[in-house]
């Protein structure tokens, strides 16, 4: 992996763009998004299946990705995927941090975490559960709710994160109408949880 990606100096880029964060604690904040290709977790409801096959996405020079991110006024970068932790991200993070940029990652936790992060959003998946050592490092736990059984899965994960970790339940987009009322009632009964909505989809932005 180190040879192919030159120690993280090249990364399989699906897309990068400037937008408003649409999910979790940082909803509504401007940020530059870097979406990396490649994921073998295989969630049936994934809304980014186009990222799964890494070989469909070109290896792009990391310095060029950073250069584009620095063209915008927000000094926040979100790295998502795919599964970002499948790649060596120390170089990317170092270049961003050296330029005064906060680094955010969204990860399933299924791979050892790479890079240096200002904020870690752990979004665990049943297909490939998180590694043990990611739980105490998570700043935010965001569990996607596809059906009611996922609430028990959410509680299993919540029992393992640190006390300061923020807890979010997010309705899977294709079943939003079906699930949102149940999630609302669950959070009213269990107020340690918050609701995350995919606000960017309501706003019709990337």
Give me the side-by-side strand order of the main sheet. Answer: 3-1-2-4-5-6-7-8-9
Structural class call reads alpha/beta
β-strand number: 9
Radius of gyration: 17 Å
Please report which band the strand proportion falls in: under 5%, 5-15%, 15-25%, 25-35%, 35-45% or over 45%.
15-25%
**CATH classification class:** Alpha Beta
- How many separate domains make up the residues? 1
CATH architecture: Alpha-Beta Barrel
Identify low-pLDDT runs.
none
Please tell me the overall pLDDT.
Answer: 96
What's the SSE pattern? EEEHEHEEEHEHEH
Q: Cα distance, first to last residue?
A: 30 Å
The helix content is 10-25%
List the helices and strands and how they pair.
Elements: E1 10-20, E2 30-36, E3 59-61, H1 62-69, E4 76-80, H2 90-98, E5 102-107, E6 119-122, E7 140-145, H3 149-158, E8 166-171, H4 176-189, E9 193-195, H5 199-203
Parallel strand pairs: 2-4, 4-5, 5-6, 6-7, 7-8, 8-9
Antiparallel strand pairs: 1-2, 1-3
Task: Please provide a written account of the structure.
- By secondary structure, the protein is α/β, with parallel strands linked by helices.
- The protein has a single domain (6-203), classed as Aldolase class I (TIM Barrel), CATH 3.20.20.
- It is 22% helix and 25% strand.
- The protein has helices spanning 62-69, 90-98, 149-158, 176-189, 199-203; strands at residues 10-20, 30-36, 59-61, 76-80, 102-107, 119-122, 140-145, 166-171, 193-195.
- Helix 2 links the parallel strand 4 and strand 5 (102-107).
- It is globular and about 45 Å long.
- The chain starts with 9 loop residues before the first strand and ends with a helix.
